[in-house]
Automatic annotation (TrEMBL):
Organism annotation: Georgenia daeguensis
Record pathway: Carbohydrate degradation; pentose phosphate pathway; D-ribulose 5-phosphate from D-glucose 6-phosphate (oxidative stage): step 1/3
Family: Belongs to the glucose-6-phosphate dehydrogenase family.
The protein's Enzyme Commission number: 1.1.1.49
Gene3D superfamilies: Dihydrodipicolinate Reductase, domain 2, NAD(P)-binding Rossmann-like Domain
Active site: 259
Domain Glucose-6-phosphate dehydrogenase NAD-binding residues, every copy: 23-206
Enzyme class: oxidoreductase
Gene designation per UniProt: zwf_1
All copies of domain Glucose-6-phosphate dehydrogenase C-terminal, residue ranges: 208-503
InterPro entries (alphabetical): G6P_DH, G6P_DH_AS, G6P_DH_C, G6P_DH_NAD-bd, NAD(P)-bd_dom_sf
Protein name: Glucose-6-phosphate 1-dehydrogenase
């Protein structure tokens, strides 16, 4: 797992984690198997983990260390991004350990403490350990208190202990504050890493490069030129086997409160004085604190539930027919909101956010739609197919940026039509983009926090969303929409009232 030799002056040289260990709670879950374990291997394969790295699993299964190693092996073989390398694997596997137990089992956490201490000697982890809570949110307080009771959260002056918490960070403002109170009892703020995996995606980080590394865009990134912004996260699948988590949560809590509001903040924020964590977070917090929700929530929000029907040549069940969903559930599988930002840069520019399941296709994008030219020196027939200019940042699945503008159609007549100019990561760069969890896990081990929202951002996001959720709770059943469509008719009506339409990605 040594890093290949490179020119020491090469600025592309990645930072390599020092001696450290990662403990995963919830090691038998899908997140650990499909994302976390493969990400650890991919980091090792790229030379970004030291030979002294250790990976410890904690779970109820009666596994030996060898059994756990086989589970990791299978997960890596199936889901790793980089090719399997036997030398990398053998080195990595020397640091695998497994501890059996329940979250309320004092003896199991005492054994975990002994295991971690032994790794400092046997593997050379140096007392540096991160605890990844890939567990249901209601288990967070119990695990945190066990870490404190067993002494696992404490560190020596020359070492560190950190905790990683997966979203959701509460289900409303009150619960978010309650969770933070528990976390703060056990770990100091700079040792708490709240994971939003969207912030680890290359394209999301490229928003900052696009805006602040180029003179081309920033002068027009304001209300003088921008008509509106649309931020979309659409999935073509239903909830699958996630009924236990999803019902009662819904699209707004699951996606808008975290992913989409973070994308809004990165799109709308002012230039930070540096890209240090505090400076970046300060600008995001300013934007989130300036967000205004509509006065008329009936007219400027929409929510829906997907119905049964045909999608992609396959008959699919409606939300209320999914396994584990009560027939009277009022949980939305689609949510759309209009938000405004009360700053000089964005005054009068609406931001439309939407997220949903069983929609037309899987796509996440930010579309900055510009105002039309104030004067067109053409006759009407020449520009009847000309739309508004737009800059579209594609987050997934085909990461890149598209610019839509008008161009003359070849021929003798003056006919102007929309064309696109496209940048794709896969075409422009020879190396593959790291998976989001690779970047985020490495940042945890390095103690580098810019991509992790802190508690104030979490609270500001809930302050935006809570009044909308409370309003919806009084409205009863969400509106049904057809699978494979782009959501309920109320979402189209929401933009139509403003004289606009949704983009069809």
């Amino acid at each position: 797992m040594t890093n290949p030799l490179r020119d020491p002056l090469d600025r592309r040289l990645p930072r390599i984690a020092g001696p450290s260990g990662l403990v995963i709670f919830g090691v038998t879950g899908d997140l650990a198997k499909k994302k976390l374990m493969p990400a650890v291997y991919d980091l090792a394969n790229r030379g970004l983990l030291p030979p002294s790295f250790a990976l410890t699993g904690f779970g109820r299964r009666s596994w030996s260390d060898e059994d756990f190693a086989q589970v990791v092996h299978d997960a890596v073989r199936e889901h790793a991004r980089t090719p399997f390398d036997e030398r990398t694997w053998k080195q990595l596997a020397t640091g695998f350990r497994f501890v059996q137990g329940e979250f309320d089992d004092d003896a199991a956490f005492d054994e975990l403490a002994r295991t971690v201490t032994a790794l400092d000697t046997e593997q050379g982890t140096g007392g540096n350990h991160a605890f990844y809570l890939s567990v249901p949110p209601d288990a967070f307080p119990l695990v945190l208190r066990q870490l404190a009771r067993s002494g696992l959260s404490g560190s020596e002056p020359e070492s560190w202990r950190r905790v990683v918490i997966e979203k959701p960070f509460g289900h409303d403002l009150t619960s978010a504050r309650e969770l933070d109170a528990v976390v703060s009892e056990v770990f100091p703020p700079d040792s708490v890493f709240r994971i939003d995996h969207y912030l680890g995606k290359e394209t999301v980080q490229n928003i900052l490069a696009l805006r602040f590394a180029n003179q081309l865009f920033e002068p027009i990134w304001n209300a003088n030129y921008v008509d509106h912004v649309q931020i979309t996260m659409a999935e073509s699948i239903g909830i699958g086997s996630r009924a236990g988590y999803y019902d009662g949560i819904g699209a707004a809590r699951d996606v808008i409160q975290n992913h989409l509001l973070q994308l809004l903040a990165l799109t709308a924020m002012e230039e930070p004085v540096s890209f240090e964590a505090d400076a970046l977070r300060a600008e995001k917090e300013k934007i989130l604190s300036a967000v205004q929700i509509p006065e008329d929530l009936d007219s400027h929000t929409a929510r829906g539930q997907y119905a049964g029907g045909w999608q992609g040549g396959e008959e699919v069940r409606g939300y209320l027919e999914e396994d584990g969903i009560p027939p009277t559930s009022e949980t939305e599988s689609y949510a759309a909101v209009r938000l405004d930002i009360d700053t000089r840069r964005w005054a009068g520019v609406p931001f439309y956010l939407r997220a949903g399941k069983r929609l037309g296709r899987r796509v996440t994008e930010i579309a900055v739609v510009f105002k039309r030219a104030p004067h067109l020196p053409f006759d009407l027939t020449s520009t009847q197919e000309l739309g508004a200019n737009a800059l579209v940042i594609r987050v997934q699945p085909d990461e890149g940026v598209t610019i839509r503008f008008g161009a003359k159609v070849p021929g003798t007549a003056m006919e102007v039509r929309d064309v696109t100019m496209d940048f794709g990561y896969g075409h422009a760069f020879t190396q593959d983009s790291p998976e989001a969890y690779e970047r985020l896990i490495l940042d945890v081990l390095l103690g580098d926090p810019p991509l992790f929202p802190r508690q104030k951002e979490v609270e500001l996001s809930w302050q935006i969303l809570d009044p909308i959720l409370e309003h919806w709770a009084r409205r009863g059943q969400p509106e049904p929409y057809a699978p494979g469509s782009w959501g309920p008719s109320s979402a189209d009506a929401m933009l139509a009232r403003d004289g606009r339409t949704w983009r069809r990605p």
